[in-house]
Design a protein that fits this description.
298 residues, mainly alpha, 0% strand
């Protein structure tokens, strides 16, 4: 697959996730965040399981080494932490804010590449990070104190999504098993979220039934399809490149939030959104136009 085709898969995943923010918000009119997270990831894992088993039976499919299996579980833990922090945050923030703040993983990812992959990011990462921070402040109304607790939880979720993107880039290339990796991470997330749901909140069958359309979209499309598109696409691109295309979910979230939820942000918040998106673009576009003289891998 060409890098262009891979990046288009990642762009499609971003669009699906953008609409998913609406489903995540409306679902919590009927069920709690832990239950919704458990239900949609369980549905995604079950839907993908037959394809993962077929991938494992395919001719030439090598057994997955134990370190890589543990790596798959680590990816599942990262996606669980990212997803539940995002879901909890959406109890007290808007679809638009959640979309833009989640998109900060595009700035976090190069930093994690330094720590995990020992790669050297392009110099543009540092001013981009500063621009993103200023954008967050403006999105919150001009002061850090204006950011809600929900906004801060979503930012925490973005950090773990950056961990997930980085780890996917490592293990999908090492094993060549994107469907198995996707099914495993979904299963791990579903089991942990279900255990937490049984402790943290009442599991209401009637509420689950009422939220079934959102659970179906979240499980089959936002999780099952979009994360699998991400995993497949990341076999042919770098974590930083993947992050910028995936971050298109921020714009799609703003679009769908305005269309379906009536979201509005303060006037200064538009400048904040613009700064965050410029930071996202800069970490990918500038290295192409002005390559660094130092060798790097992200």
């Amino acid at each position: 697959m060409s890098r262009l085709a891979a990046n288009l898969l990642l762009l499609a995943a971003g669009a699906i996730w953008g609409m998913g923010f609406v489903a995540q918000t409306t679902a919590m009119e009927h069920v709690g965040p832990w239950t919704y997270t458990a239900a949609r990831f369980l549905l995604a894992a079950l839907a993908l399981l037959p394809f993962a088993l077929a991938e494992g039976r395919a001719a030439g499919a090598a057994p997955i080494a134990r370190p890589d299996r543990l790596g798959f579980v680590a990816v599942g833990a990262a996606i669980f932490l990212g997803s539940i922090l995002q879901q909890l945050g959406m109890l007290s923030t808007s679809v638009t804010n959640a979309g833009f703040l989640t998109g900060l993983y595009v700035v976090f990812t190069p930093f994690l590449a330094v720590l995990i992959l020992r790669s050297r990011p392009h110099w543009i990462v540092w001013p981009a990070a500063l621009a993103a921070f200023i954008g967050i402040v403006l999105l919150g109304g001009g002061t850090v104190a204006a950011l809600s607790s929900g906004d801060l939880l979503v930012i925490g979720g973005a950090l773990f999504f950056a961990v997930q993107i980085t780890l996917v880039g490592v293990f999908v290339k090492r094993t060549g098993r994107p469907l198995t990796l996707s099914a495993t991470q979904f299963g791990v997330c579903a089991l942990v979220a279900l255990a937490c749901a049984l402790v943290m909140e009442p599991v209401d069958p009637a509420g689950i039934l009422a939220a079934w359309p959102e659970i179906a979209y979240g499980g089959l499309f936002s999780i099952g399809l979009a994360f699998t598109l991400q995993t497949v696409g990341q076999r042919y691109t770098t974590p930083a490149q993947a992050a910028i295309f995936l971050s298109s979910e921020a714009l799609f979230a703003a679009l769908f939030g305005a269309l379906f939820m009536g979201d509005r942000i303060p006037p200064i918040g538009y400048l904040g959104c613009a700064l965050i998106f410029v930071a996202m673009l800069a970490v990918e576009v500038v290295p192409v136009l002005r390559p660094s003289s130092r060798p790097r891998t992200a």
